[in-house]
Amino acid sequence: MMKVDLVGRINNVPLGVNRPLLPLFEAVVNSIQSIHATGRTDGRIDIRVSRDETQELIFELSQDIRPVTGFTITDNGIGFDNANFESFTTSDTKYKPGAKGIGRFMWLKAFGSVHVDSTYAFNGSFFQRRFDFRLSSEGIENAVSFLAPTEELKTEIKLINYKDRYQKTCPKHLELIAERLIEHTLIYFLSNRCPAMSISDSKTHINLNEHFNNNVRGTTSTVTFEVKGEAFKLVHLRLYFTHEKNHQVHLCGNDRVVESLNLGKRIPDLNAKLADEDGNPFKYAACVTSDYFNEHVNMERVAFDIPESDDGLFPDMVTMEEIESNVLSGVKQFIEPYLKPIREEKAEKINRFVETKAPQYRSTIKYMQNALDQISPDVPEERLEVELHKLRYRFNTEIKEETQQFINSTIGDLINVGDYLAQYKSLLSKISELSSDQLTEYVLYRKAIISLLQKSIKLTEEGKYPLEEAVHGIIFPLTTTSNEVNYERQNLWLIDERLSYHHFLASDKPLKTIDVIDTESGLEPDLLVFNKALAYVEPPAPFHSVVIIEFKRPMRKGYADEENPFEQVIKYITKIRDSKALDKDGRLIPINENTPFYAYIICDRTENLRNYAENMYDYTPTPDGLGYFNFNKNLKAYIEVISYDKLVQDAQKRNRVLFEKLNLPS
Predict the structure, then answer these.
(1) Average pLDDT rounded to a whole number, residues 297-303
(2) Distance between CA 389 and CA 385 in Å, rounded?
């Protein structure tokens, strides 16, 4: 009978679903230690994997691998003699050196029950002991002991009925289970005291010693280091396993892997596959052992009782941060020859991406070379731009800090004039290149907006032209004002670069709802722009100019008289001139009678529109033949018709000049 509250003890065992094989590993290590206790050199451990047989035909037809339901571990060790059985039934026993007495509790954490059948020697005779280990008040059930029919040491432990939450995460491939078992017990395989071990299911048999010898033996290298007087041993390994891909460092205590460090998260270049001198791919692994680790393994053997970092209270205590730092230093030194081609390929990939698709990061990769090590070599292009954007933010911050330090430096801080000038030139060069890259990004943004504009005036898949709102929304969001929209969200430069620097703008708003004028008119110009006078004057200052922009649907064929865009803008101008403008404090600001108005009609030159422009309103064609213009003397208004073709072509020409000056790829 177990001398413990078994149910409560099992509930407190920390076994994550990401470690479903740990109960198996504990059983195998127990078998190894049991064989060592006999002193024999012909030790043997056989592991049998049980699988779900309920739907065998379905799995055979689908060529799938059936889920694992349990394991049987058989060894020829010392077995469950009286002393070992007493230890097994005592919670948290320290019977075996370094033991925590926790392994058997992990069995019931992940499995429904455990059956033990053990033949052991006592006083020159052989006895057989059988019992079931279950999650019950008794714990040990059906225990019997009798004279064995054979004189041969043998212990069989069956882990039965995998619990669903652990079965779901248990590997199905036998070879993958074998490789993870080898990694967990690497210390034994690396020694000369490893028993013969095998693992099998109904179809496949794997000799673990041969698998280790074929894929690991002969590729080891060992170094030692100290942390505050404590000695540690780091064993480098090249594992030519076919299933395991993650490069790891295993921290071992009491002959077991206790914690594993994922090197891909700490050395991003290790997210790629490594290859040896002959081009054969391998997985890097390392084992770290130490008496200090043995002494500081926690009760459950899943972590170390070692502080993560130095909190200042115990400066002489070894920390995991210090251990990990030394381990990573040794790892980097060992794998550097294998990382060199990966880094060269990554550098070429980044340079090619920047040259052809993201030139705004040219200064970043020039001055942040060391930081590029933190970018994974297999990062996709869409993610690569995100990583480069992060680096540019760091670069920008560093330049600001360096500039501030330079400005705050005194004459006493300077060694000589030459050093001062060198520092000044270096800083100026960085600022200049970063500014150029920021301008590059803006020019590329404008190129994307022009491309979007081109698409918005083409036929849709349904064979129709988009509504004018599509173009309107690209240039400025609908039903908003400049008080509600950030500067970055407007693209007025598509029409005229000067419109970007306005005092107030209203988009698709009734005149009577616009704060800066006082009128009851319900007319809704598409875009209405008010510009302040450029000279310094005593308030109240008149507006320097007023701009009206009217959009019409691409390729619109006809206009009714009330929808005539020429007549529409004249009505807008008349209403605004008759109103009273208010400043931000609600005080009257009369629009000066000489305040000029500019109106832009954005539309296509259809036959109906040309008839209005040339025959009814006497507009003059622009020199390029893509639009019309007119000056209304009575309203002091310049009115221009800009076709969508002209809008796109002019924007492209203005942007192309910047492309050429910045040496950007076309």
Answers:
(1) 78
(2) 6
Hey, what amino acid is at 416? N
Long-range contacts formed by 243-247: CB under 8 A, 24+ apart:
243/171, 243/173, 243/175, 243/176, 243/179, 244/176, 244/179, 244/180, 244/183, 244/283, 245/273, 245/283, 246/283, 247/274, 247/283, 247/284, 247/285
430-469 pLDDT, tens per residue? 887 888 787 777 788 888 888 888 888 776 667 677 667 7
Measured distance between the N- and C-terminal CA atoms of the chain, rounded to whole angstroms? 81
Which amino acid, 221?
S
| Residues contacting residue 455 through CB under 8 Å, at least 6 positions apart | none
Is residue 660 packed enough to be buried (19+ CB in 10 Å), middle (13-18) or exposed (0-12)?
Answer: exposed
* Domain range list for the chain: 1-205, 218-339, 357-442, 468-657
Topology at the third CATH level for domain 1-205? Heat Shock Protein 90 (3.30.565)
Confidence of residue 138 (pLDDT cuts 50, 70, 90): confident
pLDDT at 166: 94
**DSSP string covering 246-260:** --EEEEEETTEEEEE
Confidence at residue 534, expressed as pLDDT on a 0 to 100 scale? 35
Residue 299 per-residue DSSP state: T
Contacts of 524 (CB under 8 A, 6+ apart): 508, 509, 510, 511
Structure tokens at 72: 């049987």
The values of phi and psi at residue 467, to 5°, are -70, 165
C-beta separation of 119 from 160 below 8 A:
no
State pTM to two decimals. 0.62
Question: Distance between CA atoms of 373 and 366, rounded to whole angstroms?
Answer: 13
Phi, psi of 117 (to 5 degrees): -135, 110
Which two tokens mark 471?
A: 């173009």
